[in-house]
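Before the break, one more example. Copy the sequence into your notebook; we will annotate it together after we see the structure.
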Amino acid sequence: MSFDELPATGTIRRAPTGTIERAGRTGRAEPIELLRRVPYGRLATSMRALPFLTVARHIVCDGRILLRMHSGFGHHEACDGSVVAYGADNYNANNADNAGDYADAVSGVGGDLWSVQFTGPAEIVHPCPEQERLFGTAPVSVDGRPFAPAYLRIDPHFVTEHTLNF
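Here is what the structure looks like once it is written out:
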């Protein structure tokens, strides 16, 4: 669809910012709650007009996602004030055998793999001591250099979730 084919302004029905409406989710965890099941995910945005993807440790606090990452690369500064994407999943490639039996790689309930992605504005924050403890032990080094933490908060405005059922 080209921009010329888009509907006129005001004709697109939008949900209020910050709310996610889901139908038929009975008995399933909300996407942000799935993050509590895994410790790490991937942050995506751009830096100097080039896209990048980096690993980050996350916690969920008050409906927002707090990230801890290495400050040495400057990724946190590139994200500050920008819209970013953060994704995580329960697929653990270390558990997969060489024959490709993905069902053995599942860490979710009932043999399902899930993946969630959150998109929203990010800002540099300074977590309180309780939040810092929730992150757990920090890495000793990153690429051979001492780990220096930086923290971001993402306010999720758009959420996607995918599941693979086995």
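The first strand starts at residue 40 and ends at 47. Residues 1-26, 93-109 have pLDDT under 50 and may be disordered. Try to locate both features in your own notes.
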